[in-house]
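Z., the sequence and structure:
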Amino acid sequence: MRFERFHLDRPVGGGSRHRPHPRFCQDSRLGPPDPLQVCLAAGFVDQLAQRKDAGTLDCLLAGGRTGTLVRESVVTAPLFVAAGIREVESRGSWLKLLTVATEVRRERLEELYSQHFEAAVEHVFERQQKAVAAIRRTRFLGLILGQEYQRTVDPVASATVLADALAKGAFELPQLDHALKQFIARVNLLAHAEPDLEFPAFDAPALRAALIRAFHGMALGKDAQAANLRRAFHAHLQPAQVE
């Protein structure tokens, strides 16, 4: 096996953005670094992999990819770099097999490539709870390495997530009844037939904006189902147009 690629000061892909931090081998808090681990992390940082859970070989890769650790691997760590990736055909699709795996500690990555870590609060709809959750996620080259639930949600972001979850069929909206649908249809008819009246049509973005207004400050699906939709949809028009 040849190790020319593993030199610490040799960046991945020929660029300088992957050059290791000079403190990487000097941090006494982490103990003496394993030379092979350091070299592999430096040479294959773009092939960082994380197991989806402890009992599977299926992994998430940096850059939004997925792969499967080969069964013969002795690495049991949740986070590792794969020095080898090969594609094999399986049941009509291509499967990425991860080989030559070496454990990597997150602390080492923070010393080696701190510039590739990003942290941001994201709002997601959790179908099981039928609620919006605010999660602070730490990513490394797109790979989620940590997340922490927040106590509060942003009212606009939460409303937006609820509107998008509704569009995907996550819950029903009984308040969107026949009368409100007829109101939307009449406005669209006037916008098309009488453009001089300047009625703004309820196109897809307008419908989404109306739902976001209706769901403002809400985080639970059951609260969204009880929201006052009529007032939110009427706000799409000028007061005189509603009358």
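Residues 1-29 have pLDDT under 50 and may be disordered. The longest strand covers residues 79-90.

Let me know what you think.
H.
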